[in-house]
Amino acid sequence: MITWIVIGVIVVVLLFVVVGAYNRLVALDQRADQSFADIDVQLKQRQDLIPNLVETVKGYATHERATLDAVTQARAAAAGASSVDDKVQAENMLTASLGRLFAVAEAYPDLKANTNFQQLQTELSDIENKLAAARRFFNNAVSEFNAVRRQFPTVLFAGLVGFGSDKPFFDVGESERAAMSAAPPQVQF
User: Does the predicted model carry a pTM greater than 0.85?
Assistant: First the structure.
């Protein structure tokens, strides 16, 4: 009789551990999904801003058609991406093409002085800052999920209940990483 009570207590304790670990995985998975949805909102705002930016530049730099087309195509690819990996890749292409667009704008002093262009550039900069914060939050949520998924005892049953693989991080990509490691811009008056 005592043996059955001990076995029953062990089973109940194991059940609580498994249910607790499963519930924690579900909560962390939900947090990561919600934080990616926050990134999606920022990406959508950035994508909505780009046509106005392209039109403004188009008025001043009509012979820069290849750059403008690249931005438009990158925006379309970013808007059509669905998975995390596809969105990361498309957004990295969009960021690179926007960098080329702003490099083109440097050659046109009238464009740089245009208040509409300046406002769009400021809005884009604000969105980029929000995106960076959202990416950090997402990557933190993913890191926490991945760590808990790999910990004992969760690792024993995570695959059985649908959490068998790590979530991917939102990586900035090689081109943006190279741009961030470059020398900071010099401000001169």
Answer: no
